[in-house]
Amino acid sequence: MPLSHARTPWCFGARKLCSAASLLLPQQHRSLESWERRICRLSGLLHRLEWPKLSHFTAFGERYELPVRAASILPGVADTTLQDIQYLAGFFDGDGCVSPSSKNAGCSLIVGQVSHNSEVLVLYRRAFGGGIYGKTPQRGLSKSVLHWVASGPAGKRAAAILGQHACAKHHELFIASEWPRCALQRSSAKATLSSMKREDVKAREPMSWPYFAAGFFDADGCIRIPPRSSSIILEVSQKRKAVLVKLQLFLEAECPGHASYIYTTGCAHVLSVHTSMTCRMILAKLLAAGLLGKRAQAELALGLTSSNRMETRAALANLKGNQSRYRILDEAGCARAADIQSVQKVRLRLLASGAVAAADEQQVLLTHLKQQHTLEKAATWHSSLRCDIRSWLMEGAFVVARDAQNKLRVHGYQHAARSAHHKTCIKYLWAL
Questions:
Q1: What confidence category does residue 130 fall into, taking pLDDT thresholds of 50, 70 and 90?
Q2: What digits encode the pLDDT tens for the residues 20-45?
Q3: Cα 311 to Cα 330: distance, rounded to the nearest angstrom
Q4: CB 251 within 8 A of CB 273
Q5: Which residues make Cβ contacts (< 8 Å) with residue 355, sequence separation at least 6?
Q6: Which of 14, 43, 54, 274 could form a disulfide with 429, with the two C-beta atoms 3.0–4.6 Å apart?
Q7: How far apart are CA 385 and CA 262, in angstroms?
Q8: At 275, is the secondary structure helix, strand, or coil?
């Protein structure tokens, strides 16, 4: 009986059907086009997975029920240390937003973070008041997002305090703290804010480790371990290049002899530090300055050795977001990439010595290795997608119908979906 007409009971689940399909067509015989079709189907299903709306979050060991509404009494500024304020100013420069209200009555300060990294939002609320609200539920690879929002008197006071220490958005914060009463002046202030968000405004000095390391790096920084070496790379991305130039000058003064450069990718600029010894020094200073969101990543990177490189790299990837979840090479992929690089070097040496025939043989081998590498990456991507979707469905995720009017809930593989769209969902699950 053809697979598409199999009368397999639902209780056997998609796993049985997937196993049967695997028997019919061994993985090593599948073409790249076949893998791409399967990945495309699973990616379509993944993007329609959604989790129930977040009802609470945990920060500093405490549980907070959402929404955490703004208190009527503002917290005292004396309860917040200068280092904490510098940290929050740096974080706001990276991930904060000054947003005028719809009727220009005032400005709100907004900071968004994924729900598992919500400690910084609690710090903002403790320092300046305001509330914490659920913004978007988790869907596909995008995680649930929470927003700290301060408006009215709390927003104006927070803008005045943060503006004294911010380096990139101090002009925006000043406008928010001195929001005019006149309607015409409010329209002009809103237009000025809008133009500042598009322009590369001049960054202000001085900077400090709590500002840069803890705050700004927590918001826009990245810790990477290359696939073929036991070294550390630190990067900070930002649309305002002037801020990165100031950061580069700050690092030159604090870490003499370090090597860094700024490059442009898409609409963002990236400050990159590749010297492993300097990166370790910077991470140590970041931790001492109060690094919060990326503390676990920094501690992992500082424990990197040649013997635990792959384990550390995998653990670091699990602590990051999901943007590159299926594109990071595993241990086997790193080994294949190293083989390809080795053959490339041999071929170039042969060409340089005039051994054209031997170089052509290496080119044939190189082409084969690259094709095999591409196939293996696609197979790994497909396997990871399938595993993640199964796991998330069993954890309570549901599939959003294409018409966005009806949500089809599938509790793992425990029972048949009772909906007009259940056949579509089952078809996708069979592909798992």
A1: very high
A2: 344 344 555 678 899 999 999 999 99
A3: 10
A4: yes
A5: none
A6: 14
A7: 34
A8: coil
How would CATH label the architecture of 56-198?
A: Roll (3.10)
Question: What DSSP assignment string belongs to 122-185?
Answer: HHHHHHH--EEEEEE--BTTBPPEEEEEE-HHHHHHHHHHHHTT-SSSHHHHHHHHT--SSHHH
Residue 389: CB atoms within 10 A of its CB come to: 22
Instruction: Read off the tokens for 324.
Output: 């590159």
The backbone region for 60, taken as left when phi is positive above 0, alpha when psi lies in -120 to 50, beta otherwise, is: left
User: Would the CATH topology of 56-198 be identical to that of 209-319?
Assistant: yes
Q: Which residues are bridge partners to 99 per DSSP? A: 108
Global pTM reads: 0.81
Count of Cβ atoms closer than 10 Å to residue 237 Cβ = 16
Q: In the structure, what pLDDT confidence band is assigned to residue 131 with cuts at 50, 70 and 90?
A: very high
Helix (H, G, I), strand (E, B) or coil at 226: coil
**Summary mean pLDDT of the chain:** 82
pLDDT one-digit tens code per residue, 182-240: 888 888 888 988 888 777 667 766 678 888 766 889 999 999 998 888 899 999 998 88
Among 212, 219, 209, 215, residue whose Cα is nearest residue 285: 209
CA distance 312 to 306: 10
Which DSSP helix (H) or strand (E) runs through 407?
A: strand 407-408
Tell me what pLDDT residue 143 has.
85
Q: What CATH code would you report for 209-319?
A: 3.10.28.10
Handedness of CA 92, 93, 96, 99 (dihedral sign): positive
